[in-house]
Amino acid sequence: MAKQPMLKFVDIAREMPSKRDASVRRADFDEIYAEYADAKATEQAARCSQCGVPYCQSHCPLHNNIPDWLRLTAMGRLEEAYEVSQSTNTFPEICGRICPQDRLCEGNCVIEQSGHGTVTIGAVEKYITDTAWEKGWVKPITPAQERTESVGIIGAGPGGLAAADMLRRAGVQVTVYDRYDRAGGLLTYGIPGFKLEKDIVTRRNEQLEQGGVRFVLNCNVGEDLSFDEIRAQHDAVIIATGVYKSRDLGGPGAGAKGIVRAIDYLTASNRASNFGDHVPEFESGELNASGKKIVVIGGGDTAMDCVRTAIRQGATSVKCLYRRDRANMPGSQREVQNAEEEGVQFEWLTAPKGFKGEPVNAVIVEKMRLGAPDATGRQRPEVIEGSDYDEPADIVIKALGFEPEELPTLWGCPELEVTRWGTVKAEFTSGRTALPDVYAIGDIVRGASLVVWAIRDGRDCVEAILQDLTAKAAIAAE
Ligand SMILES: Cc1cc2nc3c(=O)[nH]c(=O)nc-3n(C[C@H](O)[C@H](O)[C@H](O)COP(=O)(O)OP(=O)(O)OC[C@H]3O[C@@H](n4cnc5c(N)ncnc54)[C@H](O)[C@@H]3O)c2cc1C
Ligand code: SF4
């Protein structure tokens, strides 16, 4: 009988792929984790306890068959591991890199609860699909049969692209419209290269194009092409536009030059440093931290991406102001640790009261303490009166979160129903909206969320569209 390859968690310690030293990685935008060597991936996958009720799987938004692909990896059956992995996840190598695993699959790994350290699920998932790409197992889509129906997708982020992939697999004709010049949404222009190198995204975009997805880029729907025109051209339309309206700051001096939005700052950096684009605001220094004192306001993942980008651009100092403490911040603890190693200073329990100078030269900071819990149970930050101080700053980056743009107004379509937060009203399991043949997915429905949830929405929505198209075809044939 073959030797049991699994349950090695008692003898083998958890080991992440090696992380480049902070002094080295500060100088470039390359990813910070190396790839597992084959033997290490096999060894780490073999730590899985193959428990009867895999909590990792139920806490993965895609319900990936994690125990199965870990076992196949441990047995060296990598091509099969890849087949299982890609059957539930459109972009496994992307999720393996950027999912907050500590809150999802790995956060619910049973062997961690017995004190042995989680299986490194994300790193193995990344390893399997990176290997598949290397070995040529990832192929362009070739549908068994072409269908005549067409679907227009507005937004080429992970939600729209996951839907495009599934629709093409079913033989549907797909056109993806995006206002940017490259596909990928926040994978391309939001998330920095040190978390997700851009060729990982580009090769997926190319794979989709080779599989018959048509991209119409530099097309701002609502300006260059109307929503009604898109609806008229397709049998169904998916809205996958994400959320891009930045939350703003108040207080005296909040409009000063040098106070910039995180999305503008990160987009400029991604364009200039990863794609080598000519970006005037980067070259002029307006959106470039080189030689400057940088203050980032916010405690989420966007703030973490900004502080770490500023370090790589050569800022003289990078400080992050957050109004709660470390234990209560929304950003991933793993990213805070990475940022600290790279030289970022966190000023916990602080908030901006105003700004000095035109252009800005300082943030007036007030200190906070945590008071009684609010309705959500989170302790409310309270100002400590008389605690103000000035924090010198040449650029202040606002990373306070995102809200949806007003699509019904921008698109001249008041019938498109939105919630009181401005997100599009859609059924969570199908993406169906109140408008016939119009579906919505990803951040524009959920509010700012995660890549893995956008992928899940895209996949679910395609199931509903295929059902609806088939039902229509049956009626037409009667
Ligand atoms: C800085 C940053 C870092 C993040 N880091 C992580 C992370 O580490 N892990 C993680 O899981 N999630 C992360 N997220 C969240 C994640 O990126 C989003 O949840 C995800 O990208 C949402 O996917 P989406 O397809 O709904 O929208 P998006 O990725 O936002 O894509 C929407 C697309 O629609 C296009 N669009 C919008 N309006 C129009 C229009 N009118 N006409 C044409 N095109 C239009 C946009 O140009 C864009 O390409 C991060 C977000 C940010 C901002
Ligand atoms: S998709 Fe994300 S949550 Fe699911 S297994 Fe992969 S890393 Fe974990």
TrEMBL record:
<keyword id="KW-0004">4Fe-4S</keyword>
<keyword id="KW-0560">Oxidoreductase</keyword>
<feature type="domain" description="FAD/NAD(P)-binding">
    <location>
        <begin position="151"/>
        <end position="458"/>
    </location>
</feature>
<keyword id="KW-0408">Iron</keyword>
<protein>
    <submittedName>
        <fullName>Glutamate synthase (NADPH) small subunit</fullName>
    </submittedName>
</protein>
<dbReference type="GO" id="GO:0046872">
    <property type="term" value="F:metal ion binding"/>
</dbReference>
<dbReference type="InterPro" id="IPR023753">
    <property type="entry name" value="FAD/NAD-binding_dom"/>
</dbReference>
<keyword id="KW-0411">Iron-sulfur</keyword>
<dbReference type="InterPro" id="IPR036188">
    <property type="entry name" value="FAD/NAD-bd_sf"/>
</dbReference>
<dbReference type="GO" id="GO:0016491">
    <property type="term" value="F:oxidoreductase activity"/>
</dbReference>
<dbReference type="InterPro" id="IPR006006">
    <property type="entry name" value="GltD-like"/>
</dbReference>
<dbReference type="InterPro" id="IPR028261">
    <property type="entry name" value="DPD_II"/>
</dbReference>
<dbReference type="Pfam" id="PF07992">
    <property type="entry name" value="Pyr_redox_2"/>
</dbReference>
<dbReference type="GO" id="GO:0051539">
    <property type="term" value="F:4 iron, 4 sulfur cluster binding"/>
</dbReference>
<dbReference type="InterPro" id="IPR009051">
    <property type="entry name" value="Helical_ferredxn"/>
</dbReference>
<feature type="domain" description="Dihydroprymidine dehydrogenase">
    <location>
        <begin position="26"/>
        <end position="136"/>
    </location>
</feature>
<keyword id="KW-0479">Metal-binding</keyword>
<dbReference type="Pfam" id="PF14691">
    <property type="entry name" value="Fer4_20"/>
</dbReference>
